[in-house]
Amino acid sequence: MSTWDDDETEFGELDAGVVISALSVEVPLVAVPAARVVDGAPQTGSVDLDEDMGLGVWEMTVGAMRDTEVSEVFVVVAGSATVDFIEPALPPIELSPGAIVRLESGMHTVWTVRETLRKVYLASPGLCARPAVERAQRSEYPRLRRRPATRLAAAGRTATSAATSIAVRSAPRTHPAAQRG
Prior knowledge:
11 strands, nine-stranded antiparallel β-sheet, alpha+beta
């Protein structure tokens, strides 16, 4: 099996068939600008693993900071944190290893890290069709507009149950494929 060796690999484009350990990638950290710090003295940094794909590793040390998000999907590989959504106002989420999260461009957040957080992200302008703020202003329940009643019925859900699941978005959910026997 091919593996990544930090003495020989320069990032910028991933080679096919090569394993890179997200936990072993060296991430250079810099202090968060004072205007964004909410608590402590957090540091952040990132390494682009494949610039064309928007794939990378990001890390934040203990503390709290404000951020304006880009469109991305990420998987937490280490640490623990809470993300509070300021705009649009959504319930906070808890992050721990294995958490998969999608953020939309323009979201205003506060990240509170209790144990150094590391995530692998895929950031791309094409991930989200509309900025989060625009979606929140368009509808109280933006996901209902994208889920026709026939899809809800096929999933055994009603518009009321879909709205309820949106209201408790921060609660852990099981992917439908994992519920099948």
